Structures are given as structure tokens and as C-alpha cells.
Amino acid sequence: AGTTIKSYKQGADGKAPALVIERGAKIIADGTADKPITFTTAIPSQFLPMRGAWGGLILLGNGVVNGPPGTERNIEGLDAGLGTYGGTDDTDNSGILRYVRVWYGGADINPDPTNPE
Questions:
Q1: Per-residue pLDDT tens listing for the chain (117 residues)
Q2: 4, 6, 69 from 60: Cα distances, Å
Q3: CA-to-CA distance for 40 and 51, rounded, in angstroms?
Q4: Cis peptide preceding 49, ω within 30 of 0
Q5: pTM to 2 decimals?
Q6: Would you say 23 and 59 are in contact if contact means Cβ atoms under 8 Å apart?
Q7: Deepest of 2, 9, 39, 82, by most Cβ within 10 A of its Cβ?
Q8: What one-character DSSP code corresponds to residue 34?
């Protein structure tokens, strides 16, 4: 508890780093009210606040998503098979996020100039 994890806005490949919790994996980020866990940007504070300063936190579970039963989707920007989420298990558990702050995320994790967002 009480730690800060920082990310750069983009890697050498031009993609925004993100913490991706894949299906079947778990994140245990168990902070306290006095010592929260913060995921944020490495950009100096004088340039903040800034939306989209890194990719953010992405949880890919096995729960039901919009569509026919068993529908699976893929996160745009991740290679096929690496960003798959959805399924039929609404009891799926991706871990613990307690007293966690995710600041300044939202950057496009793989910008595609042919598909501006």
C-alpha cells in the first residue's frame, strides 16, 4: 500500500503504455485510505492535469458483454488474441482494486491514422 506507479506517455514504438490485465490474470492493488496506490504519468507535475498522458488501466474479463451469449470483443490497439474480453462468466474475478487512483490515463494505446478517434 502507498505506492505510485508511473508511466511515460508513449514508448519508442509510438504506442501509449498501459497496464493490461488479461483474462485469467489478477491484479492485487490493495491500498488503504491513508496509503492509496496511484497509477499515473511520469510527465512533470507542472504540465498536469492532462487527459491522455498514458494508456491507463485495462481489465479484460470473461463476463457477458453486449451481444449474443458468449460474445467476445478485442481492445482496439492490441494484437488479436492479446486484447480479448467478454464471455459467459459473470462471476469472473480480475483481482482487487481497493483505494486505487488511476490518474491522467486515456491515451490511444496504438494510434491508427486511418481510424482517428
A1: 789 999 999 888 888 899 999 999 999 999 999 999 999 999 999 999 999 999 999 999 999 999 998 999 998 888 777 899 999 999 999 999 999 999 999 998 887 766 655
A2: 22, 21, 17
A3: 11
A4: yes
A5: 0.86
A6: no
A7: 39
A8: S
Number of other residues whose CB lies within 10 A of the CB of residue 60: 22
22-59 residues labelled b (16+ CB within 10 A) or e (exposed)? bbeeeeebebeeeebbbbbbebeeeeeeeeebbbbbbb
Residue 107 CB-density burial (10 A; 0-12 exposed, 13-18 middle, 19+ buried): buried
User: Residue 13 corresponds to which cell in the numbers above?
Assistant: 514504438
Q: Measure the CA–CA gap between 15 and 20, rounded to whole angstroms.
A: 14
What CA–CA distance (Å, rounded) separates 56 from 63?
21
Q: What type of residue is 73?
A: R
Q: Which residue has the cell 503504455?
A: 17
